[in-house]
Design brief:
This protein is α/β, with parallel strands linked by helices. It has two domains: 196 residues, Formyl transferase, N-terminal domain (Rossmann fold, 3-Layer(aba) Sandwich), CATH 3.40.50.170; 100 residues, Formyl transferase, C-terminal domain (Methionyl-tRNA Fmet Formyltransferase, Chain A, domain 2, Roll), CATH 3.10.25. Helix content is 25%, strand content 27%. It has eight helices and 15 strands. The strands form three sheets. A seven-stranded mixed β-sheet has the order 5-2-1-6-7-8-9. Helix 1 runs parallel beside helix 6 and helix 5 packs antiparallel against helix 7. It is elongated. The N and C termini lie far apart (55 Å).
Length: 314
């Protein structure tokens, strides 16, 4: 089939490569504009752009996909079907209807669970035992279109969001190819989502990573994994920022001297730092990154700063 592929993030790369390897005609790749990144504010392309360019594909980077000129450019490509994977802009009806066979999306959750921009991260934070990839036909709602295919996988006990996202991205490619074949052959019937089972996975904000020590340790450990690498789990020590890179929940009736309030530093040893949390639990910090510093074992950070039991974090 003749395909227009809309994608920007690295999650889209395996899907684009799978579509090409399956022999589909990719008329163009539509991706986000180049933007400033990092402390140096250097202009950088979205991750999918160099991959598309290396394949010799036409690349379009409209500022806003809903603008009339952008819609006209899509229509001029005359696609049979459009594919959207981690594109980063909401598609209006004028774009959705460009292709006669519809617009297919690859979404990193088992819809209708975790509709929204950050399904991989919230799956871990929410304590889901499994997640997966779903293909659907896009409509004007937030991931509300009819489901085409889905595949489930378990979430690893210590899995971080970036690792889980990589696994799901690699699943997405074959599932997308299977979906396109089913639509082309007429063997795939879209089925409506059950709205009563829907949950949301909203776009992440920097403040989502701020550690609230009043939560139980297992909830905080999931946030450390689910928000890695961005926005990261972060707190402060002696007024300076501290990023928590790796942590483990532990049951501890007394992680700090006395009945310490949440956020109080308890035992410090070569295995890391124990911090009091809610419900008599403690979070063991294993690897951290101090403000303007490098990642290091938490024990090394404690030794270098001469932390003492009883100090407060956050």
């Amino acid at each position: 089939m003749r395909v227009v592929f809309l994608g920007s993030g690295s999650f889209a790369i395996p899907s684009l490569e799978a579509v090409l390897e399956a022999g589909h005609d990719v008329a163009a790749v539509v991706t986000q504009p180049d933007r400033e990144k990092g402390r140096g504010r250097e202009i950088a392309p979205p991750p999918l752009k160099p991959v598309a360019a290396a394949r010799g594909l036409k690349v379009l980077q409209p500022r806003r996909i809903r603008e009339p000129d952008s819609v006209a450019a899509l229509a001029a490509l005359r696609p049979e079907i459009q594919v959207v994977v981690a594109y980063g802009q909401i598609l209006p009806r004028t774009v959705i209807d460009v292709a006669p066979r519809g617009t297919v999306n690859v979404h990193g959750s088992l819809l209708p669970r975790l509709r929204g921009a950050a399904p991989v991260q919230w799956a871990i934070v929410n304590g889901e035992r499994e997640t997966g990839v779903t293909t659907m036909l896009i409509d004007e709602g937030l991931d509300t279109g009819p489901i085409l295919l889905s595949r489930a996988i378990p979430i690893g006990e210590d899995e971080t969001a970036d690792r889980l996202e990589g696994r799901l991205a690699r699943m997405g490619g074959p599932l997308l190819v299977e979906t396109l074949e089913g639509l082309r052959n007429g063997t795939l019937t879209p089925r409506p989502q059950d709205a009563a089972r829907a949950t949301l996975a909203p776009r992440l904000k920097k403040e989502d990573g701020l550690v609230d020590w009043r939560l139980p340790a297992d909830a905080l450990a999931r946030r450390v994994r689910g928000f890695h690498p961005w926005p990261g789990a972060h707190t402060s020590v002696r007024g300076r920022g501290l990023r928590i890179l790796r942590a483990r929940a532990e049951a501890s009736p007394d992680p700090a001297p006395g009945k310490a309030p949440p956020g109080t530093l308890g035992k410090i040893d070569r295995h890391g730092l124990l911090v009091a949390c809610a419900e008599g639990t403690a979070l063991r910090l294993l690897d951290v990154q101090p403000e303007s510093g490098k990642a290091m074992p938490a024990a090394a950070f404690a030794a270098g700063t001469r932390l003492q039991a009883g100090e407060r974090l956050g």
